[in-house]
Design a protein that fits this description.
- The structure is a single chain.
- With about 260 residues, the protein is of the alpha/beta class.
- The chain has one domain: Rossmann fold (3-Layer(aba) Sandwich), CATH 3.40.50.
- It has helices at about 1-25, 40-45, 90-100, 110-125, 140-145, 150-160, 185-190, 200-205, 205-210, 230-240, and strands at about 70, 80-90, 130-135, 170, 195, 215-225, 245-250, 260.
- A four-stranded parallel β-sheet has the order 2-7-6-3. Strands 1-8 form a two-stranded antiparallel ribbon.
- α10 links the parallel β6 and β7 (about 245-250).
- It is globular.
- The chain starts with a helix and ends with a strand.
Length: about 260
């Protein structure tokens, strides 16, 4: 099954996407300029998260000179080992993710991976042998969109740094209400019990071998908002594999938390 999935992914990225780009010339998602999905000006407008982040969850704007934690992490232990994001989820970065996720522009997965490759390579290199996976979407959502954007991004990131192909470690077992507009607590309630370990964790020799050779798991998603989704997924993955999980996302939505040294 995994070989067929990999072959299908290769056909899409190497044959179908270039053909569609010839028939429908790309336009910059930021300004609408033709011939590129992200022009030089919009690329320059991407805002990196930067090094000053919460030492637990990666929230931007928390001084790195001391044991700075964001307000959301005070008195709380995340289910993941670390969380890292590349760009603030605003401006061209927000448009990139939106078009990738909702407009059927699967080809943007390669562009997001290109922009995030250096940070991803640093994370993978920091922790050594890791299994790469993605935040699952419900089967009905993947069917309606044609793909799961987190899975596409994970595959493109792995390819961009020469890492082994990602493996499926979790599934989404029920549909959930839309997360937009919900606060951290609302998102957590919405997602409780929505994920389960993938059957591949026990039944796939390929996945079992990948886990046996790994010292941890890197969980890929498009955007980190409140952390409710990755918290639930990492809880499931660590419970099933016994491995620590590091979260990697392209975008990060600052929640306006004040800085706090704990």
């Amino acid at each position: 099954m995994s070989s067929a999935r990999n072959a299908l992914g290769w056909c899409r990225t190497s044959v179908l996407d270039p053909l569609l780009a010839t028939v429908f010339p790309p336009r910059c998602v930021g300004c609408g300029r033709f011939e590129t999905y992200l022009c030089d000006e919009c690329r320059a407008a991407l805002v990196p998260v930067g090094p000053e982040v919460c030492r637990r969850c990666g929230h931007p704007g928390v001084g790195s000179g001391g044991p700075g934690w964001c307000a959301a992490c005070v008195g709380e232990e995340p289910t993941y080992r670390s969380a890292r994001s590349v760009f603030l989820h605003e401006g061209p970065a927000r448009r990139l993710v939106s078009c990738f996720k909702y407009d059927g522009l699967r080809v943007l997965g390669r562009l997001l991976a290109e922009l995030a490759a250096a940070e991803f390579d640093a994370l993978v290199g920091e922790y050594g042998a890791v299994a790469i996976t993605w935040v699952p979407s419900h089967a009905s959502t993947s069917r309606s969109r044609g793909y799961n954007q987190a899975e596409v991004l994970a595959c493109c990131l792995a390819q961009s740094v020469g890492a082994p192909p990602p493996v499926r470690l979790a599934t989404k077992t029920r549909r959930t209400g839309h997360q937009r507009g919900l606060d951290r607590e609302g998102r957590s309630r919405n997602l409780t019990g929505a994920f389960a370990p993938s059957p591949d964790v026990e039944s796939s020799a390929h996945v079992c071998d990948a886990l046996a050779r790994s010292e941890g798991v890197v969980l890929v998603d498009d955007v980190f908002t409140t952390g409710a989704t990755v918290a639930e997924v990492t809880r499931v993955i660590t419970g099933a594999t016994g491995l620590p999980v590091d979260v990697f996302t392209f975008g990060r939505t600052p929640a306006g938390f004040p800085q706090r040294a704990d």
